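re: the backbone from monday

yeah here it is again, tokenized this time
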């Protein structure tokens, strides 16, 4: 099976964090149904998200996000076909506060502030992979068992 991996950045247009976390519940259910996996970082009203799965499903979900009024300045950072999923443990992993992982941010973006638009595909994937592996030590909304 071909696995597509897509990563994008966007800004929240009007949704506060509480609403984002409510939307996350719906997104996880949809992703499970579509057999998508991924990870989302939301901080300073900006999103950085990776989606993995069947190319048609990944493209459809991305198109939905790009047309969602809750997102603005949606920018595709990268799309590639991969042999193996990097975020297979999550229908949608999520972190809203980097906590102890703040230092990781500088390693991949060269900045101390969360600015996902400045990341390329590789650095964004590596950043989210490392945040996911260390658990970020901050505000993480875990998926139900």
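seq for it, each position gets an aa:
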């Amino acid at each position: 099976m071909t696995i597509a991996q897509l990563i994008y950045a966007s800004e929240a247009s009007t949704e506060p964090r509480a609403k984002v976390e409510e939307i996350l519940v719906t997104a996880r259910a949809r992703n499970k149904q579509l057999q998508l996996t991924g990870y989302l970082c939301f901080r300073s009203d900006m999103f950085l998200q990776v989606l993995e799965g069947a190319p048609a499903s990944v493209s459809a979900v991305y198109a939905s996000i790009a047309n969602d009024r809750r997102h603005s300045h949606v920018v595709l950072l990268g799309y590639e076909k991969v042999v193996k999923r990097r975020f297979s443990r999550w229908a949608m992993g999520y972190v809203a506060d980097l906590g102890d992982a703040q230092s990781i941010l500088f390693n991949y973006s060269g900045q101390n502030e969360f600015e996902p638009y400045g990341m390329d595909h590789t650095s964004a994937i590596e950043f989210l992979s490392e945040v996911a592996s260390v658990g970020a030590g901050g505000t993480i909304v875990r998926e139900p068992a």
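The chain has a mean pLDDT of 84. The chain has one domain: 3-134.
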